[in-house]
């Protein structure tokens, strides 16, 4: 299920459309690599591709197709817990 808020549709319509279309695409998983990524790269990727943009997560894991970052998972670690906060695709 995908919930879309009125202001998100109004101001980020192209991003929402790309999210919907991306979910219909198939990928060859063998072409991908998982890497830790910098906060700078995460900020840029999330602000461009996630409907809510960047927040103060402190662990960022990226999925790369060759040298292109195509998916990002951001986590927040505090004490003994790790919480998944954001996930998005290009």
List its traits.
four-stranded antiparallel sheet, 31% helix, 90 residues, alpha+beta, 2 helices
Count of individual beta strands:
4
Biggest sheet, open or closed, and with what strands and sense?
Answer: 4 strands, antiparallel
Decide which structural class fits the backbone: alpha+beta
| Global shape | globular
Query: What count of structural domains?
Result: 1
Strand order of the largest sheet: 1-2-3-4
Alpha-carbon Rg, integer:
14 Å
Gap between N and C termini, in Å?
A: 19 Å
The ordered string of helix (H) and strand (E) elements is HEHEEE
Give the amount of beta strand, in percent: 35-45%
Helix proportion of residues, in percent?
A: 25-40%
Number of helices: 2
State the low-pLDDT regions, or none.
none
Mean pLDDT: 80
List the helices and strands and how they pair.
Layout: H1 6-22, E1 32-36, H2 39-49, E2 59-65, E3 68-78, E4 81-89
Antiparallel strand pairs: 1-2, 2-3, 3-4
């Amino acid at each position: 299920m995908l919930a879309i808020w009125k202001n998100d549709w109004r101001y980020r319509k192209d991003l929402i459309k790309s999210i919907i279309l991306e979910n219909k695409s198939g990928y060859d998983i063998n072409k991908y690599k998982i890497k830790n990524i910098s906060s700078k790269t995460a900020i840029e990727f999330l602000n461009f591709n996630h409907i809510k943009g960047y927040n103060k997560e402190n662990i960022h894991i990226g999925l790369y197709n060759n040298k292109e970052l195509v998916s990002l998972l951001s986590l927040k670690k505090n004490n003994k817990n790790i919480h998944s906060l954001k996930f998005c695709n290009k």
